Amino acid sequence: MKTCSKQDGRRGFLKKSASIAAFYFTPASLVKTFAIDAVVPLPIAKEKLAITINGKLMNLEIDARTTLLNLLREDLAYTGTKKGCEMGQCGACTIHINGKRTKSCMQLALSNQNNKITTIEGLSDGVNLHPMQAAFLKNDAFQCGYCTSGQIMSAVACVREGNAKTRKSIQTYMDTNICRCGAYQNIVDAIEEVATSGAKI
Amino acid sequence: MNSNNYHTILIEDERVDGADKVTGKAKYTAEHSLPDMAYAVFVTSSIAKGTIKNFDTTKALAMPGVLDIIYYANCPAVPGYISNAAERPKNVFEWRGYKVLYDNKVRFFGQPIALVVADTFENANAAIRFVKAEYEVEKFETNFDKARLDPANLKAPVNYKRGTEKKFKEAAAFVEAEYNIPIEVHNAMELFATIAHWEGEDKITLYDKTQGPKSTQSTVAKTFGLPDKNVRVIAENVGGGFGSGLRSWQHVAAACIAAKKLNRPIKLVLTRPQMFTLVGYRPQSWQKIGIGADAAGNFIGISHEAISNTSRYEDFREGIVEASKFLYASENVDTKYQLLPLDLSTPIWMRGPGEATGCFALESAIDELSYKLKMDPIQLRIKNFTSVNPENKLPFSDINIKDCYAYGMEKIGWKNRSAIPGTVKENGWLIGYGMSVGVFGAGKGVASVRIVLSNDGKLLLECAVSDMGPGTTTSMTKIAAEAMQMPIQKIKFKLGDSDLPPGPSQGGSGTTSTVGSAVDLACKTVQQKLKELAIQYAPPFAKTSADALEVKNEMVVLKTDAAIKIDLMALFKLANQEKIDLTITSNGKNAEQLKYTSNSFSSHFVKLAVNQKDGTIKVLNVVTTGDAGKIISPKTARSQMLGGVVGGIGMALTEKIDIDHASGQIINASFGAYHVPLHSQIPPTDVWFVNKPDIHMNEIGAKGIGEIALIGFAAAVANAVYNATGKRVRDLPITPEKLGYKTAKA
């Protein structure tokens, strides 16, 4: 059964059927891999994961195959992180893992034992917009808004990494994030504005 | 109406839904969750054409969490799948391109052949590999370049002719050449997704990524034999569309079928590779354009032929040859347009649609002609300017393209352009300047808006239209704020739900004009009601007439004496009324407006550099200008134009689908292999609008800009490449190989 710790009660919802819970306790060591045709379908192991998301420690039991992106979106309802390709090519799913920007679709959730995750929902203090969010809004640095979470998470990292010193550098270090609506110029304007403002981000 | 009625933007210029988008709160289709929801994923064909002879789902069904595998042999009866019209219920239609999982035929590589449904996304995904299909393969054709050469493969042409055919070939200056554009794919960032939930035997709610909630509602209703009102389609936030969401695709039907069969909500999200095969694309095209001019540069005639591909099971045609008929003065024009069916899925309008395809050829040809005439290409366009549409003989309701030329020339530094290609260099790079024109029809359709003015001073407007990114929510709010003369913060515009009053699909640059006119009319109707209330209930107005009053700053005011006024809340109190709640319908163009023909125009200017050693093309500067009536929301409009430039750079320089014609498979179906423009490829871009209300077009004076932002842009790049190098590239995208450079070895 997927559970969320009480520390994150507001997101503590369950949706998986109880009928398959029995499979979950099969030890991982019993799951063997074979050539596809030879595989006898086996119950899928559930694994324990301790992970801190936006400052909240969660003790979860999860499907070992779950990506960090799908854990966030499908299991924990952190839908601010977007799914754009599941191939690490578009950047829509960019989050911070222990402060470093990472594409969450390229990570198994389980490889994040004890890691600290920040998503777009955890970027601001909950009252005021983060300076980067405010700059994106002011500079109209998006249209449809779907790549925006990833752009903002990358942008914050880009500044913190020290890669936002020139427009050219911002562009290069933001090539990780595709915007199909084409808001690139406004995105760079927003990042440059934050980088030169001296705001603590 | 005169333009003085429209003062500049009221207050803040940020998107009204922007805060939700920068905080991740805005919910897109796949982000909704319903109790007991199951996950569905497609199994797709690994051949391009044939028949499934054997289908084995045994192993996949035994996989953990798998609930069902739906395919042709067990797909439930769907009324819209009945091919025989006599057997179909009256309110049902059969749409071949929408049918899925209904027979054992494969019509294109990557076609859905089964739908795996499981309790979790992981379980569904794991099971697809265990579904086995054995095929009897048939001969197929995916090679456009080869197939178009045999006239037997082409469908009957659509022809247009005015004046004398081909006469202009004997003109003083004549150019004729062929142009090729590959398949390009919209690839909006949000993956297409549908969540289907049957709330009863004959009642369904869908969360669906669509550009038209009403159109999806109608499609689903007619497929499943339901009254429209029993189908609710919600698309509150749409993560880009660019045309791909202008129809319902097979995944929508599949989700509905699975939800019915399993009697639980189903979430079906496409993968990025499926975004290349299952939701349309800009068709591949071949064009041949000829233009003849006299020695002074006056066009004598234009001939424009085009072929574009469609699928084997549906015809898709678009306006490839349209602009050639009316953008310039020319007595003689003949056009011919044919479809070439291939064993691929069906194309759909992609931003700028056919006009972007056509204007690439037309605007390249005019540039080429200008060199033959030794005339500046802008002067050549001005020479052939017309204020009357030569096709339908109606005057343009407004056309200010020459203002666009003037601004663009100045800002791009046109004076630094040399009329002799390959002669301007900077830092060892060849420098080129190019420009082009884009044009698209400006329509006004039917839309209904509910307007509710409450006694707390808040104004609510509702329409079923969706907002895929241009900022419709924002511009509609601004139109209401201007019409009502009230603060934007007190206004809410709700959209993206088929239960709301009907509005158009968001496409063809028509939303602002159509829905905006309805919003404007709704506000004016409410103002009229307010004036009537004031006359009836507020003593100072008892002897006045509605014409003598105006509504502004949340008050009813006597025009001749501003001291005589009543604020709206007090008025509601006097009238003992809680709110005014009306649903208003605005119709298409009226008789007066139909005396004109309306278009939006754009002109794009590009300065670029070509590396002499390896042919690398770097766009250095762009100026893009729009002549689209009054600009409702300057900030979001500018963003749309910027987006058109980015899309145009992709079309011109990077985007192309590659098909392996041995298998019929698209081999670059990912962002890693299909190259959309990235941050570092985007030059500084200056956006400018004429921003003059088109008073003959509609009540708000605004026309669309979504398409003109992109239409013609690729030609400006190609023309600049020619100016830089002396090489005319007529096949997109323009790559170093096409300039004669060898591709560097990895």
How would you describe what is shown here?
The complex is a heterodimer of chains A (201) and B (746). With 201 residues, chain A is of the alpha+beta class. Helices cover 25% and strands 13% of the residues of chain A. Chain A is built from 5 helices and 5 strands; from the N terminus they run ββαβββαααα. Chain A has helices at 68-75, 131-138, 148-160, 167-173, 184-197, and strands spanning 46-53, 56-63, 94-97, 100-103, 116-118. Chain A has a 5-stranded mixed β-sheet with strand order 2-1-5-3-4, covered by helices on one side. In chain A, helix 3 (148-160) runs parallel beside helix 5 (184-197). Mean pLDDT of chain A is 84; it is low at 1-36. By secondary structure, chain B is α+β, with helices and mostly antiparallel strands. Chain B has 3 domains: 3-26 and 444-588, 2-Layer Sandwich (Aldehyde Oxidoreductase, domain 4); 32-138 and 188-271, Aldehyde oxidase/xanthine dehydrogenase, a/b hammerhead (Aldehyde Oxidoreductase, domain 3, Alpha-Beta Complex), CATH 3.90.1170; 285-443 and 594-739, Aldehyde oxidase/xanthine dehydrogenase, molybdopterin binding domain (Aldehyde Oxidoreductase, domain 4, 2-Layer Sandwich). Chain B is 23% helix and 26% strand. Chain B is built from 15 helices and 29 strands. Chain B has a 7-stranded mixed β-sheet with strand order 3-5-1-12-9-10-11. In chain B, helix 8 (353-373) packs parallel to helix 15 (713-725). The longest helix of chain B is centred in the C-terminal third of the chain and has 27 residues, at 511-537. Chain B starts with 17 loop residues before the first helix and ends in a 21-residue tail after the last helix. The chains are: A alpha+beta (201), B alpha+beta (746). The interface between A and B is large, with 70 and 74 residues.
Key attributes of the depicted protein:
heterodimer; A: 201 residues; alpha+beta; Ubiquitin-like (UB roll); DNA polymerase, domain 1; five-stranded mixed sheet; 5 strands; disordered N terminus; B: 746 residues; Aldehyde Oxidoreductase, domain 4; Aldehyde Oxidoreductase, domain 3; seven-stranded mixed sheet; globular
